[in-house]
Every structure is written in structure tokens, then in C-alpha cells.
Structure to design on (178 residues):
């Protein structure tokens, strides 16, 4: 069976398990990168994959100029795909074990000072409907600590204005009240 067919089977399994489309796209991107490398090594079936080939792939990834976070994501997604191949009996070994973990070095996020936050709140022109909307969004983001994606998903029926509450759908479709 081709790697693309196995990838489709793997993605469908993850989709049924409830993975988001955004996550699935990232997994497809990472596994496509692995397939391209395997193709350059004339490896066309899972039975031809070895731990040595996978370690060479990891070494090739490290030489690229990509962030440690993206590198760690590639390693994790490839390791899980290779584990899937083993669990589904497409290989006789879990070659994902040949991939060593990469430590993520996330850049420190800059937190706004109170003065910067106050200046930001004054930016929208509250004499216009768009300005009122923008100010409300800034206030919501600042006061609740919501993620950008969570705010985007808010619908009118999620608001409880008299009580000052919002029903938020976060990562993994988990809902909470803020």
C-alpha cells in the first residue's frame, strides 16, 4: 500500500477520534515531508523503512533553518504516524522510536504593561459602530484572557449580557463560561 493511502487511513482514524481540521492539516504537512524524504531514498513501502533511515531523516530536518517548535511538531507527528504503521501491522517494528525528542524553545511572549493596555483601549474611535465593536473586542480579550480563536467562534446566542457571561468553545471543542 502506498504511503499516501496509509496517510489517508491514518487521517481518517484521527478525524473520527475528533482531531480538528487544523491539526489534521498540520499532520498531513509533516507526513508529506517524511514521504518526500523517503522518496529521495527510493523507499516506497512501509516494509522498506528502517530505524537508520528515520534517524537520517531526523538529522536532515535538524539541518534546516526551522524553529525548534516546528521541528518538535514534525518529529511528534512523524513518530505517531510510524507508530500507527506498526500498530496496524504495516511494519514489523515501531520505527518512530528511532526519533529522539526535540526540546521546544518557545519564544517568551511579551506581556503588555498596564499603560500599554490602556493606550490600546483608547485606539478605536467609539464614535463609529466599527470603533464600538473593536473596543468591545479589546475589552473582552483583555478582561477574560480568551484566545483569538475562541473570540472568533463566539456567536450571539453565546452571550448572556445581563449577567456579563460568555459561553466559550476552546481547544478540543471544550466549552466553558467566562
Amino acid at each position: 500500500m502506498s504511503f499516501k493511502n496509509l496517510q489517508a487511513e491514518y487521517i481518517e482514524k484521527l478525524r473520527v477520534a475528533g482531531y480538528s481540521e487544523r491539526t489534521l492539516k498540520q499532520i498531513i504537512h509533516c507526513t508529506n515531508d517524511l514521504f518526500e524524504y523517503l522518496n529521495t531514498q527510493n523507499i516506497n513501502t512501509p516494509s522498506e523503512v528502517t530505524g537508520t533511515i528515520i534517524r537520517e531523516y531526523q538529522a536532515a530536518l535538524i539541518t534546516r533553518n526551522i524553529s525548534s517548535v516546528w521541528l518538535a511538531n514534525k518529529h511528534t507527528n512523524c513518530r505517531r504516524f510510524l507508530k500507527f504503521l506498526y500498530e496496524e501491522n504495516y511494519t514489523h517494528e515501531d520505527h518512530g522510536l528511532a526519533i529522539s525528542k526535540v526540546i521546544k524553545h518557545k519564544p517568551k511572549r511579551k506581556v503588555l504593561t498596564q499603560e500599554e493596555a490602556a493606550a490600546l483601549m483608547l485606539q478605536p474611535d467609539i464614535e463609529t459602530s466599527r470603533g464600538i465593536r473593536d473596543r468591545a473586542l479589546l475589552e473582552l480579550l483583555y478582561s477574560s484572557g480568551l484566545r483569538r480563536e475562541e473570540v472568533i467562534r463566539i456567536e450571539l446566542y453565546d452571550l448572556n449580557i445581563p449577567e456579563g457571561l460568555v459561553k466559550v468553545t476552546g481547544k478540543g471543542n471544550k466549552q466553558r463560561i467566562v
